Structures are given as structure tokens and as C-alpha cells.
Amino acid sequence: MPTIIEITDLSDPALDVFARLTENQLRSRLEPEKGVFIAESPKVIERALDAGAVPFALLMERRKIDGPARDILARCGGAPVYTADREVLAQLTGYTLTRGVLAAFHRPALPPVEALCQNARRVAVLENIVDSTNIGAIFRSAAALHIDAVLVTPSCCDPLCRRAVRVSMGTVFQVPWTQIGAVPSDWPAAGLARLSALGFKTAALALTDRSVSIDDPALMAEPRLALILGTEGDGLAAETIARCDYTAKIPMSHGVDSLNVAAASAVAFWQLRARD
């Protein structure tokens, strides 16, 4: 059973993980392999637990202990639960907790690209996407619309940052993902070569003179396809587009030439899903 600890001192170092560490500090706390991520709300925490993530501390409103968080607490072993009223927690964290519950987890080790993609037919590659809201929304679409795995480039926003996890509604724990390359220079040349070696054709979502529609029969018929999505504003790098097997676009009307990357991902994932 968890240990319930009433918060009496907001400066308690045990609360740093919830209130005083930046996302970068959480990610690389002590050593990268000992990093931390934060999950927010009972539903998201439950999905993290279902994925095998291991919690080491929780923070929640007192009234949640015997309410919405009761089933979660039963799964968290002896992890300490720090609690106080809603107003005290807002003072501690600087914001009102969504649904009144946070959990701190040890970060899992990321699998190699080759292992993750071994049986995948459709993967999404996120190139340098920096907005956490977009990352979360893309993962939610990937989970709903038949994407087998997500690969993020080294300059991409961390999918386990608090906001991305929350926006994804915990689907970041349901869709297998990993980083493709250790440093920015590993993408695009080396990364695309790895995908090719694994049997994937690559499709850059971009507007160019050679772009085909996403309902192009040849594109849709590819047995293994990696969809490459670019950063907000600038889109994909020219080198990435040049190295891909296809360049694909979403047909539009009323003079609109592009969608937000999260919206575009949902359209592309559905249209280009693997069909048995």
C-alpha cells in the first residue's frame, strides 16, 4: 500500500520533481538512463502503468485519494503519495492540476529502431517538431489511425514531456516509439538509410513540383511505408525531401496550401494506413 504524506513544507526537496525541475532536468536527472517523466490525470497515469512504467512518487489532492485515484494507488506499490488541498498544490506547482493527480515515473529505456520496426508496416517519423502540443496530438492520431510506430529525430520535442503526455491522453504509452539517431547529424542521411535497409519506402509530406496526392495508388500500395512529417513553419528540410522515395501532399481547396502538422498527420495516417 502507498504511504500517504501530508505536505507541510513546500520547500521539501522530495517535491522538487513535481515543482522545481525543468523538463530537461527531469529527462537527464543524475544520468540519462535514470531520467524521469511526469504523467498527469488518472487516465494518463493508468495508461503509463499499463505500459509497464514504474512510478516512484505521486502528488494529488487529498480528496482524490479515496476517489478517482483509488484504483491507481492500488497499483503503485509503496510509492509515496504527497497530498494537500487543491490550493496548496497550485501554490507548489504554479498551476492547477488537471484532475488533481500527478505521478513521477522512471523513464524506460528506448528500443533500437530495428527492433521497433521489425514487424511494422506503417511508421511516422517526426523531423524536428518542437511544439509539445503537436507531438501529443500526433501520437493520439497515430494510436487511433493505425500507425505501428513513431520515430523522432534527435532535435524533436521529447514525447515524454509533461504537456505532450497530457495532450496525447496517454497514447504515447500505447504507440511504440524511439529516437532515430543519437545526434542531429544522424538525420536525415543516416536515418533514411536505416529505414531503407529495413525495407521501408519513405514519403515526405511536403509541397513540391513532384508531390503526388496521398491517395496515389502506388503510394497507398506500398507494403512498408514511413511517413516523414516536418517541423512547424519551415516543414521538412530540402535534403530530407530530396532523399525520400515519394513526396506527398494532401489535396486542398479554397486556396489553403497546408495544414498544421498535427492535423496533416491525422489525414495522412488515415489515408495511407496499411490495408490487408
Q: Helical region count?
A: 12
Task: Please state roughly what percent of the residues sit in beta strands, choosing from under 5%, 5-15%, 15-25%, 25-35%, 35-45% or over 45%.
Answer: 15-25%
Order of helices and strands: EHHEHEHEHEHEHEHEHEEHEHEH
Average per-residue pLDDT, rounded, comes to 90
| Poorly predicted ranges | none
Radius of gyration: 20 Å
**How would a textbook summarize the main sheet?**
7 strands, parallel
Q: How are strands sequenced across the largest beta sheet?
A: 8-7-6-11-9-12-10
Overall strand count: 12
The chain-level structural class is alpha/beta
What keywords describe this structure?
276 residues, alpha/beta, elongated, seven-stranded parallel β-sheet, five-stranded mixed β-sheet, 30% helix, single chain, 12 strands
Tell me what the structure shows.
This protein is of the alpha/beta class. The protein has twelve helices and twelve strands. The protein has helices spanning 16-19, 23-27, 42-50, 70-73, 86-93, 113-116, 132-144, 162-167, 189-197, 217-220, 238-243, 261-271; strands spanning 4-6, 36-40, 55-61, 81-84, 101-106, 122-126, 149-152, 177-179, 201-205, 212-213, 225-229, 246-249. A seven-stranded parallel beta sheet has the order 8-7-6-11-9-12-10. The protein starts with a strand and ends in a 5-residue tail after the last helix. The model has no long low-confidence stretch (mean pLDDT 90).
